[in-house]
Amino acid sequence: MKLAWLIDTTTYIDQNMDDKDLFVVSLSTIINDKPYKDSEFESSKLFFDMLKENGNGAKTAQPTPQDFIETYEQIQEEGYTHVIAVHPSSSLSGTYASSLSTAQSFPMEIHVIDSGTGSFPQKELVEYGRKLYDEDYSFEEIVNKLEEVKHTSELYLLPRNLQQLKNSGRVSNSKYLLSSLLHIKLLLKLENSTIDLELKSRGNKKIEAYLITHIKEIIDKGVTNIGVLHAGNEQEAHVWKERILTLNKDVNVYVEPLVPVASVHTGYGTIGIGWIQTQ
After folding, report:
1. Keyword Magnesium on this protein (predicted)?
2. How far from each other are the two terminal CA atoms of the chain, in whole angstroms?
3. Which end of the chain is least crowded, N or C, by CB within 10 Å?
4. Neighbouring residues of 73: CB distance < 8 A, sequence distance ≥ 6
5. Which of 265, 232, 266 is closest to 59 using CA atoms?
């Protein structure tokens, strides 16, 4: 078995992520009616600067069918016999369906996973699968474990304001106006393929206390890797990192940029905190 991993840019890829056997299809961000492939931004800072200045009304676009065809063709030409593709929640993006449809045209053994999540938890799912491959698990065993573990992922989002959520249709005009007038803060949760309102509060104190309590619970249950994600406000992300480390100094806390598709829909200044339980 020669196994390839196919992901897209809803999975955050850092410089320390081994790119061996890893293939990436890019989503696009549309700012001021001009499309930019996520993979073409020279740095996350450049993207966040554009989002801050011109993000009002920004949109995203999934990869084209041709993007998937060309990537699967490349994987086949390089001699891979098996492929595991990991994509974001099918209820939020058509990327999974497009990848699945394309995969059916190729003779390789391919399994396409609807991760139900994105960003850091999605990256952790891929890294877990690659670890299993290095430990000589079979293709079927890896697929089964990933399909099981994906349901343990959680990703919390704390938007700085609701402007972009209103623009993208996630929040109604009336709720946006009421929240703005009363300074209501929201805590959103992406779990099992859906984004739900987890908590709302006047100010951040109640939300911060709620999250810290829950993070302590999941650390006690064995979660060792936690991602703190930011849409341009890295300093605030480091504050959250220190809060988490006061709970347990042995936990690995990674500060990373929030992926463009999530940043566009939740807006500049959003903080995300996520994990997946693989123990």
Report:
1. no
2. 26
3. C
4. none
5. 265
Q: Which residues of the chain have pLDDT under 50?
A: 174, 176, 181
**Spatial separation of the C-alpha atoms in residues 11 and 4, rounded to whole Å:** 16
Tokens of 27: 């989503």
**275, 218 contact by CB (below 8 A):** yes
Instruction: Please report where in the chains the tokens 């779990």 appear, as a residue.
Output: 191
Measured between alpha carbons, how far is 163 from 166 in angstroms, rounded to an integer?
5
H-assigned helices in the chain? 44-54, 65-77, 95-103, 119-134, 139-149, 163-167, 173-182, 205-220, 234-247, 260-266
What pTM did the predictor assign? 0.90
Q: Which amino acid is at 50?
A: M
Tokens of 95: 């990327």
Residues 6 or more apart whose CB falls under 8 angstroms from that of 18 comprise: 130
Other residues' Cβ atoms within 10 Å of the Cβ of residue 35: 12
CA-based nearest residue to 219, from 240, 191, 242, 250: 250
**Cα–Cα distance measured from residue 186 to residue 189, given in angstroms and rounded to the nearest whole number:** 10
Q: What is the pLDDT of residues 137-196, one digit of tens each?
A: 999 999 999 999 999 999 999 987 666 665 655 555 545 455 554 566 778 888 765 666
Strand partners, 275: 154
Please tell me the number of Cα atoms within 13 Å of 264 on its side-chain side. 21
Residue where the block lists tokens 């339980």: 277
